[in-house]
């Protein structure tokens, strides 16, 4: 019998629905697919409404099944009906068992998120789908699309769903992870309060699958040196006498752990990296941290190579005194643009890092600030940029506005206790400092403050 309706989505009743197997969740990158929801029929709506256990199904007799075999758990699949995309859902499981009626190739999702649940025929246009298609072709019932197109269509269908917010966050993080994977060393730079340290920790957690044992953290300061970072002599008391003993620094111990677990990724965060004297802290590692000289190829003799002990030796196979940065170690540094010590950051060292600027506007989005806070922050930063001698490096980041919860969302207290003192430091020694401070305060408080507050409850 010829099947005219080549696929549909509906409830499959199973006595043991709880036993449906779910594949592993540790999928690094999401995949996006579009599946046909079938040819229009009179009873289309009746079949769509009231779905309790959502499934997308293809008949074994269907032509051009597309790339069904590529659909994996955590993928996002869209339903296409006529020329529209009407819903999306997250895949939990798929199988190719065939029932007695010939229906096969099932894709289970947690739930269908419709553009209009009351009218499943309605959806968003699929303009650009051919260009966005990766595999499956124009006629494939299931085709794979790129993540950029997928995220755009998710937003058009329902931008408020928790699934969309989750995917948006994942893709946002993937961009940073790809840069770190390919460059080994990155520095997150930007104005104060843009969440650089917070972002560095998020990237590290994603890179290491939330394994805290694979994440190192240190904050540089003017007193920090090679002894703290790589190795050095430390005072010890033995038999009522003082002496010195060679001890590994935090980074050397971190790398030693990494070479013993080469199948894992390790991320070392250096907060405020520019506040330390870089050349003295890294010493000969200036060569070894270069992305092109990771592993044994970049091995160097440390400053205390001639007095190594069993406790301090880095790699038993290389012998005493040798050290290198393993290929599975990644470094993230953070720094404020306006910090005076930025100017002293060694230019040769700069070349060994990829620099990523985090703007105040980006920080507001990353932190999901309410519109009221975004408006004040933007108005204040626009005013800062208009003052001679100041620029985007002096902008106020979104992290400052997270402090509002400490003051019951009282913006005047945030200004008094945090923003005004910082801005005074910006303006210190400048001509017209008092006048410019009034301009900044006016911009922050906004002429339309009353109407804005009322509109935002």
Please report the distance between the alpha carbons of the first and last residues.
Answer: 62 Å
Helix content: 25-40%
Query: What low-confidence regions span 5 or more consecutive residues with pLDDT below 50?
Result: 1-28, 48-53, 450-457
Structural class: alpha/beta
Tally the structural domains. Answer: 3
| Fraction of residues in β-strands | 15-25%
Tell me the major beta sheet. Answer: 10 strands, mixed
Average the pLDDT over all residues and give the rounded result: 81
DSSP, total strands: 19
Number of helices: 15
Look up the CATH topology of the largest domain: Rossmann fold
The level 1 CATH classification of the largest domain is Alpha Beta
The CATH fourth-level homologous superfamily of the largest domain: P-loop containing nucleotide triphosphate hydrolases
Label the overall shape: flat
- What is the level-2 CATH architecture name of the largest domain? 3-Layer(aba) Sandwich
Cα-atom radius of gyration: 29 Å
């Amino acid at each position: 019998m010829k099947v005219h309706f080549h696929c549909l989505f509906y409830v499959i009743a199973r006595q043991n629905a709880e036993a449906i197997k779910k594949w592993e969740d540790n999928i690094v990158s999401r995949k996006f697919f579009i599946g046909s929801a079938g040819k229009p029929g009179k009873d289309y709506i009746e079949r769509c409404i009231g779905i309790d256990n959502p499934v997308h199904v293809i008949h074994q007799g269907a032509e051009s099944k597309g790339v069904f075999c590529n659909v994996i758990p955590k993928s996002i699949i869209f339903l296409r009906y006529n020329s529209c995309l009407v819903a999306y859902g997250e895949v939990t499981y798929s199988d190719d068992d065939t029932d007695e009626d010939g229906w096969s190739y099932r894709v289970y999702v947690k739930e269908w998120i419709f553009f209009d649940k009351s009218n499943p025929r309605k959806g968003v246009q699929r303009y650009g789908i051919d260009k966005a298609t990766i595999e499956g072709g124009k006629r494939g019932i299931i085709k794979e699309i790129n993540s950029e197109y997928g995220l755009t269509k998710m937003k058009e269908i329902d931008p408020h769903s928790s699934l969309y917010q989750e995917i948006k966050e994942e893709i946002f993080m993937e961009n940073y992870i790809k840069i770190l994977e390919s460059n080994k060393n990155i520095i997150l730079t930007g104005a104060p309060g843009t969440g650089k340290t917070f972002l560095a920790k998020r990237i590290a957690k994603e890179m290491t699958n939330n394994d805290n044992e694979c994440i190192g953290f240190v904050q540089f300061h003017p007193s920090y040196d090679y002894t703290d970072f790589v190795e050095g002599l430390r005072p010890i008391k033995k038999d009522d006498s003082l002496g010195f003993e060679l001890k590994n620094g935090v980074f050397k111990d971190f790398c030693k752990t990494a070479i013993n677990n080469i199948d894992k990724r390790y991320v070392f965060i250096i907060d405020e990296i520019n506040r330390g004297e870089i050349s003295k802290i890294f010493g000969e590692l200036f060569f070894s941290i270069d992305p092109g000289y990771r592993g044994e190829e970049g091995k160097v003799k440390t400053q205390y190579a001639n007095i190594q002990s069993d406790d301090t030796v880095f790699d038993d196979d290389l012998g005493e005194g040798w050290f290198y940065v393993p290929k599975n170690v990644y470094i993230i540094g953070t720094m404020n643009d306006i910090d005076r010590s930025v100017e002293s950051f060694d230019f040769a060292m700069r070349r060994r890092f990829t620099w990523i600027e985090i703007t105040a506007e980006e920080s507001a989005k990353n932190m999901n600030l309410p519109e009221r806070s975004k408006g004040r922050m933007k108005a204040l930063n626009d005013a800062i940029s208009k003052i001679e001698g100041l620029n985007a490096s002096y902008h106020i980041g979104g992290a400052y506005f997270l402090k509002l919860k400490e003051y019951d969302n009282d913006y005047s207290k945030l200004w008094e206790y945090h923003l005004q003192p910082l801005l005074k430091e910006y303006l210190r020694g400048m001509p017209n400092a008092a006048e410019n401070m009034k301009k900044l305060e006016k911009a922050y408080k906004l002429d339309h403050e009353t109407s804005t507050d009322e509109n935002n409850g």
